[in-house]
Amino acid sequence: MKKLLFSLLTLASGFSYSQELEKSLLWRISGNGLQQESYLFGTIHMTCDSTLEENTIKALENTKQLYLELDMDDESMQKQMMKHMIMKDDKKLSSLLSAEDYELVDEFLKKNIKMSAKMFDSFKPFIVTTMLYPKMLDCPFQSVENTLMKISKEQNEEIFGLETVEEQMRVFDKIPYEIQAEELVKMAKSYLAKDKAEMNKMMKIYQNKDIEGMLKMIKESDNKISAENQEVLLNNRNKNWIPLMIEIMSDKPTFFGVGAAHLAGEEGVINLLRKKGYEVEAVK
């Protein structure tokens, strides 16, 4: 289930492209009345190497709590997710697809996750897609969020989320189920070849700390879920986070870890914080 959660986070990373930012994953937040500095870090939810650099570990040491997109340390998270996996209005995957495409997806799922599409007929199609995300890696699955949580626990610090499972899952009710189903079919037709290539490219861009390049890649992707739903997937969520972040870091120095695609762009977290009067500087 944790792999699914990381996959959902990955899928939920759209973007808005704007002014050029420095190549950095770690950003220091100061000024505007803050008594102590907080930090903003761009994560990647699935990777082959989740090792953190020394400056990131030091930032974790200099803060007193960790905020991720979701409180991934919450033991009730799996139950919460199960409540929101089903499509509304009694829609079915078998009715969204042609008989030919449904059969194609069914065979694809049987070969890759050893389960029939019939088991997921009522699930939101993107849920089925995310179950295949670990298959895109040619290495054992790792997550930056897991590493951040491990260090925070060693420091006896609390872990929180900027949004609830319900809020995040509700996003995928705003994206037409037909589009979600279409992307699942595309994945089955390419038999993950294209998806693996894109994942490898994204990991390389992330390793180069190129958050602008990461956004550019997503913008140019033919995946309609991310490319055509930037407001729902990214911009609206960023705007919702800002007042929470301001309140949180005004109380105590905080390390915020969110998908790197949320950082850049005119309506990205960095620019939105700067508009509120905070200094947000790349940490080299």
Which descriptor suits the 3D outline? elongated
Radius of gyration: 19 Å
Helix vs. strand class? alpha/beta
Strand content: 5-15%
**Level of helix content?**
40-55%
- Physical arrangement of strands within the biggest beta sheet: 4-3-5-2-1-6
The structural domain count equals 1
N-to-C order of helices and strands: HEEHEHHHHHEHHHHHHEHE
- Poorly predicted runs are 13-18
Distance between termini? 35 Å
Q: What is the overall number of helices?
A: 14
Number of strands: 6
Q: Please, what is the average pLDDT?
A: 91
Quaternary state reads: single chain
Q: Strand count, sense and closure of the main sheet?
A: 6 strands, mixed
Organism: Flavobacterium fragile
Pfam family, one: TraB_PrgY_gumN
Protein name: TraB/GumN family protein
Structure report:
- By secondary structure, this protein is α/β, with parallel strands linked by helices.
- It has one domain.
- 49% of the residues lie in helices and 10% in strands.
- It is built from 14 helices and 6 strands.
- A hairpin with a 7-residue loop joins β1 and β2.
- α5 crosses α9.
- The radius of gyration is 19 Å and the shape is elongated.
- About 2% of the residues have low confidence.
- This is TraB/GumN family protein.
- Pfam families: TraB_PrgY_gumN (PF01963).
- InterPro entries: TraB/PrgY/GumN_fam, YbaP-like.
